[in-house]
Amino acid sequence: MNSLEEVFPANSQYTGDMFTPLRLQYLGLRCCLILLAHAGGAEAASNSVGTEEVREAAVRAVGLVDRASSAFLTKRNCFACHSQTLSVLVLRKAMQAGIEVNRDNLRNQRDRAFEALTASRIDTFGYALWALDAGEQTPDTNTAALVELILKDGDPRSVWQPTVQRPPAEASRFTSSFLALRGARRYGTELQSERIKQRREAVRKWLDTDPPALETEDQVFRLRLAHELQMPGATLEAQVNKLLADQTPEGGWAQRPGLLPDAYATGTALTALHEAGGLSVSNQAWRQAVRFLMQTQRPDGSWHVITRVEPIQEYFESGFPHGTNQFISAFATGWATLALLTNIEEQK
Asked: Can you tell me the distance from the alpha carbon of 120 to that of 97, in angstroms, rounded to the nearest whole number?
């Protein structure tokens, strides 16, 4: 087990008033995970969780996402990736799994994505187009304008870089490049096609150089990016194996070496492994990860993840649990819920 100083070094961003609460939460969560691992044993880890048990957990999570995302719309006028995009993805998949959702809220979450036209971050543009796509928005002048913002960001002969450094969700070239290419491919116009092709080739050449993937976020979106670029099966298989190798003994994934496994890293890893890597829900690694998510879900349907960054805006209550950790916890809950819904869908 890593020491507290290794996980939260004294010279890192975890200093001052933020440092002590993180240390205490680290100790408590680590102890809980160890107890859960010992209580379950090897036999429990290798068995799948019951279908009804997974469905009940998913229903709790979907209900929370539905209510909290609706409340967020009344708190702020901006587009928020953790709220709008993940909510659209979750609510859409929940409908497909036969779970009742507020369809008006689903449309409202999708439509809020157009507020990204006034934003300035590349990841925001990409996540907004993902929300619109998941919400079945047809191409129009607004989607073309979002693609234009993507194409004008950075050097047209290079990959996209995150606009800010806010790990895990906004700190990876792999994430930024995947989000940008995904959005451009689905909503780019004929007039934009040559520039999209040029940027696509630049990203492919960069990915061929095997750039370092330092965190799970990098590994997850590197796999998604390889799939988006339709790279050879051997390349995808290698990325799948690298990501699987980072699964922790508790069954989940950590955001980076030395940190605890959590729902954000685990949810993003599982959904990428399934959607881009073809991992079956019957795979032992998948079953272990679902069990980890079931064990760490809160009674209110959420997953609590501790933030790694200082806030860049004044604190406000968005309607999601966990106070100052609510944004990353909402992101994590969205990805974890998508994994559970995938489990339900594939076992029908």
From this structure: 35
Rounded distance, CA 124 to CA 119, Å?
7
- The CA distances from residue 80 to 38, 85, 265, in Å, are 39, 8, 19
DSSP string covering 291-333, please? HHHHHH--TTS-------S--SS-----SSSSGGGHHHHHHHH
DSSP state at residue 84? I
Q: Could you tell me how far CA 257 lies from the centroid of its own chain?
A: 18
First CA to last CA across the chain, in angstroms?
A: 39
- 72 CB contacts (<8 Å, ≥6 apart)? 80, 83, 318, 319, 320
Is 26 in a helix, a strand, or coil? helix
Which CATH code for domain 49-346? 1.50.10.20
**Of 223, 225, 264, residue with least CA distance to 243:** 223
Who contacts 142 (Cβ-Cβ below 8 Å, separation ≥6)? 114, 117
E-only strand ranges, the chain: 253-254, 261-262
Query: What are the residue ranges spanned by the domains of the chain?
Result: 49-346
Contact 329, 320 (CB under 8 A): yes
Over residues 221-249, the pLDDT tens digits come to: 999 999 999 999 999 999 999 999 999 99
Are the CB atoms for 112 and 79 separated by under 8 Å? yes
Answer for the pair 140, 187: CB distance below 8 angstroms, yes or no: no
Model pLDDT for residues 151-185, shown as the tens digit of each residue = 999 999 999 999 999 999 999 999 999 999 999 99
pTM across the whole model: 0.87
